[in-house]
Amino acid sequence: MATGHGTALSFGTSSYSPVLINIEPNELSVDDVERATLATPEGSIIPYDPAELIEGGEVTFEEEAEVDSLPPIRIKQTLTITFRAPSGLTNGATWVFEGYLKTHRINSQQTGTRRTATGSIKVAGDITVTAAS
């Protein structure tokens, strides 16, 4: 399980475990869809419910680069983000979703500095949220 500032990222079927420096959660978005009125039945203008158009976005992260092996690009699996527990609570909130590592790049390295990499994870399904407790 990769951790960074109290936040952890785990890949369900892969041993890939980056040491996180930073993680930025995804942005949910949906395209606008024209319907004659909100009372117009599904299928009259579009063949699906607009809620099905939600785009899960991407989670981006920065990690300490691992150069001894390659990460699992485009392998769909269950991913879990466990956020740091808020003050006074024991467990942080968790997000569980299907997704895959979409991009991964080892950043340029200056002599004497830490080698880092950046990556993005495509959210390819609904996010199940468990509140902090």
Structural features, described:
The protein has 133 residues and is mainly β. It has no helices and eight strands. It has strands at residues 2-4, 7-11, 19-24, 58-64, 77-82, 94-106, 116-123, 128-130. Strands 1, 2, 3, 4, 5, 6, 7 and 8 form an eight-stranded antiparallel beta sheet that branches. Strand 1 (2-4) and strand 2 form a beta hairpin. 15% of the residues are buried.
**Number of DSSP E strands:** 8
The secondary-structure class comes to: mainly beta
Mean pLDDT: 81
- Give the low-pLDDT segments: none
Task: Characterize the overall form.
Answer: globular
Strand content: 35-45%
The arrangement of helices and strands along the chain is: EEEEEEEE
- Assembly type of the chains comes to single chain
Helix amount: under 10%
Largest sheet report:
8 strands, antiparallel
Number of helices: 0
Distance between the termini: 20 Å
Computed Rg: 18 Å
Would you summarize the structure shown here?
This protein has 133 residues and is mostly beta strands. It is 0% helix and 38% strand.
Write the layout of secondary structure elements.
Layout: E1 2-4, E2 7-11, E3 19-24, E4 58-64, E5 77-82, E6 94-106, E7 116-123, E8 128-130
Antiparallel strand pairs: 1-2, 2-5, 3-4, 4-7, 5-6, 6-7, 6-8
List key phrases describing it:
globular, single chain, mainly beta, 133 residues
